[in-house]
């Protein structure tokens, strides 16, 4: 049995994993899906939503487990698990980036997006007057990240998305090869992604080599559009060489 800790992305919550969780549990695995601070049921003020708060939240989830976990970060969750791995490398079997921000030390999530010519995220962002949070143009939401999602999925998304605090997105990660660098990494790229373009994803997993790169022909949120395939990839990792800390082949 493995323990999966699934970290959601910007503006969302643990609810995004509702299709994937039962598929992992059916195979006998433990699945933890925390709401990050300011998201879902984890309520706090906007001022309290920081990268450090996110990292502390995930770190606490790791400390509560008896064995190292498979830590999955989607989108913004990728930036978070990168910093988490710096502080808790021995509590992680494998880092899995699901169309996630795989950042080098000193980089921020926002600067990756600003340099991403394939992303339509910032072009459709609506910032609050004080620039501390952002939402997205409702009419562009499907194109941004949900191009292959059903009407039912979109109804759920529209009812649950919340403004995203900017602070975590502009805070650089700080990592070392001795901590973050020794945790095995796997990248799941989404080839029809308009949030983090495929070229930007490739640039990240080329700069920080991963033991394995898995390609999914989906938009940004395959946990909604292709949950069976995504769960299959995650289940395959538990027995893979990368999860056991050995070197695998990069695609």
Automatic annotation (TrEMBL):
Domain annotation AB hydrolase-1: ranges? 4-231
In its keyword annotation, does this UniProt entry include Nuclease? no
Endpoints of the signal sequence: none
Instruction: Give one Pfam hit by family name.
Output: Abhydrolase_6
Source superkingdom:
Bacteria
Q: Name one GO molecular function term.
A: methyl indole-3-acetate esterase activity
Statement: the UniProt record of this protein carries the keyword Hydrolase: yes
What is the designated name of this protein? Alpha/beta fold hydrolase
């Amino acid at each position: 049995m493995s323990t999966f800790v699934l970290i959601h992305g910007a503006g969302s919550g643990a609810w995004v994993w509702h299709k994937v969780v039962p598929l992992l549990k059916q195979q006998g695995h433990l699945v933890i899906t925390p709401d990050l601070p300011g998201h879902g049921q984890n309520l706090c003020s906007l001022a309290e939503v920081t990268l450090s708060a996110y990292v502390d939240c995930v770190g606490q989830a790791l400390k509560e487990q008896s064995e190292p976990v498979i830590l999955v970060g989607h989108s913004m969750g990728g930036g978070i698990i990168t910093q988490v791995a710096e502080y808790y490398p021995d509590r992680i079997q494998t880092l899995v980036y699901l169309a996630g921000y795989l950042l080098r030390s000193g980089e921020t999530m926002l600067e990756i997006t600003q340099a991403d010519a394939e992303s339509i995220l910032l072009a459709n962002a609506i910032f609050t007057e004080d620039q501390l949070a952002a939402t997205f143009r409702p009419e562009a939401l499907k194109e941004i990240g949900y191009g292959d999602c059903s009407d039912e999925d979109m109804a759920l998304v529209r009812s649950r998305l919340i403004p995203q605090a900017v602070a975590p997105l502009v805070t650089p990660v700080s990592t070392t090869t001795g901590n973050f660098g020794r945790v095995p990494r796997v990248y799941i790229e989404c080839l029809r992604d308009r949030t983090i373009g495929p070229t930007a994803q490739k640039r990240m997993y080329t700069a920080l080599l991963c033991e394995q790169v898995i390609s999914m022909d989906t938009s940004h949120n395959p946990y909604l559009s292709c949950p069976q395939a995504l769960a299959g990839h995650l289940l395959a990792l538990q027995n893979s060489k990368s999860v056991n800390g050995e070197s695998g082949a990069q695609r």
